[in-house]
Every structure is written in structure tokens, then in C-alpha cells.
Amino acid sequence: MKKLVVLTGAGMSAESGIKTFRDADGLWEGHDVMEVASPDGYRRNPELVLDFYNQRRRQLKEVLPNDGHINLRILEKQYHVDIITQNVDDLHERAGSSNVLHLHGQLRKVRSTYDPSLIYHWEKDLVLGDRCEKGSQLRPHIVWFGEDVPMIEEAAKIVEKADILVIIGTSMQVYPAAGLVDFCRLNTPIYFIDPRPSIHQRSYPNLEIIEDTAVGGTNKLIKKLID
After folding, report:
1. What is the per-residue pLDDT across 74-107, written as a single tens digit (0 to 9) for each?
2. How would you classify the pairing of strands 31-32 and 164-168?
3. Does pTM top 0.85 for this prediction?
4. Of 22, 5, 16, which Cα lies nearest the Cα of 68?
């Protein structure tokens, strides 16, 4: 069974109603991203940051996977599919995808501010005073701007083994995630799905651009990849 690796970004979840800061001049739900997605922002106003992610966590209960998410699950009928996502929602899992790696963390998890290896599943609001077993404050399990991306090496190893690489709904401008495509073996077929593609046909050998949304683009992808 061929190995199909999919890199997904904000455009993957946009059709489920999840807003992204990329589409709003650097604002994420009305906030400067550095206020709510940086260590400095958290130090300045932890209550604002916790409330912001509490709202995002609540929003997850109101949205559903879209047909793009479902299409990736369908591809598992003929491929071993690994999904590497920059998204912090759980829509890939809820759509039934088997192998999902979250580069930038997950909304439904929190972690210790003292020991990052202490990670907990979390459904309710997170507030000041919620502590880990070692007594330190819990924070969202989200990789903020300026922080290391601990899963990037594992993601690179997955991309190295890809027989086919698919990129969906990401600007390919945010590093280190944008650099994952360079770990592909030479001549690996690459499909880039985005309504406003930011890379060009000449950028990589065997690149095919599908200028469409996640739903429309994965519909086309299925026709190409499934007999």
C-alpha cells in the first residue's frame, strides 16, 4: 500500500466555519495574534489568553468535519494516509482519519507550565488556579509564536517516506512547517490544493496545483488517486 502524506493548514478547516488569522489582516477573532499566541502575550495577560482558547475550545463543539476531512478518510481505502496538520482542532480525528500528527498542539489538551511533558485531555474552561499534578499552572497545549515545534522532526521523517505528498489549505509561508515539503524524495508527486496557491509549478518537480478549496480540491484529488 502506497504511503500518502497530507500536510494541512487553516484552509482545511475554514469550510467547517473555523476562522483563521491569515484571512483577517493578522487578527484572530479580533485579537492581535501576538496577544493570544505568544509567550509574552501570556505573561502580560494570562486571563485574556486562557479565555481566548476557552472560546476556541467551545467553538469546536459547534462545528463539524467538512467533506474535505471526510475525503481524506476515504483515501485510506487505497493508501496508508498520514496527516500532518498545523491546525489545533480535532476535525481530522472526528472525520475518522487514523494517523494524525498535530504540529502546533491541540485545543482539547492542556499542559503544565513547569513540565511540558505533563499533558492532559481537557474539555472544560481552563482558568488561573488549574494546576498540574506537580502544582504548576496549566496552559493551552498550543505552540505559540517563538516557541519550538517539538513534533517537527517526527513530521520530517514521515514526509521522507511519502510516495505521494498532498498539501491543503496552507500558505507555505510559516516555518518550520513550510520546510517539510523539502524532505520529500526527488520525483515524489506533489499535489497543492488551495484557492489562492502561493507556490508555483516550477517550484518543485512533479508538482500539480489544484486551485480550489479543501472540499472541491479533495473531490478532484479522489478522482485522480482512487480507481
Report:
1. 999 999 999 999 999 999 999 999 999 999 999 9
2. unpaired
3. yes
4. 16
DSSP assignment of 139-198: EEEE--TTS--TTHHHHHHHHHT-SEEEEES--S-STTGGGGGGGSPTT--EEEE-SS--
Place of cell 484572530: 28
Concerning whether 104 is annotated as a catalytic residue, the answer is yes
Closest CA to 210 of 197, 225, 224: 197
Choosing among 3.40.50.1390, 1.10.10.60, 3.40.630.30, 3.40.50.1220, the CATH entry for 1-18+66-104+148-227 is: 3.40.50.1220
Cell of residue 8, nine digits:
494541512
CATH architecture of the region 20-62+109-142: 2-Layer Sandwich (3.30)
Query: CATH 3.30.1600.10: which residues of the chain?
Result: 20-62+109-142
For the stretch 141-175, pLDDT in tens is 999 999 999 999 999 999 999 999 999 998 777 77
Among 69, 92, 102, 104, the active-site one is 104
Alpha helices in 1-90 (DSSP H): 10-14, 33-36, 39-44, 46-60, 67-74
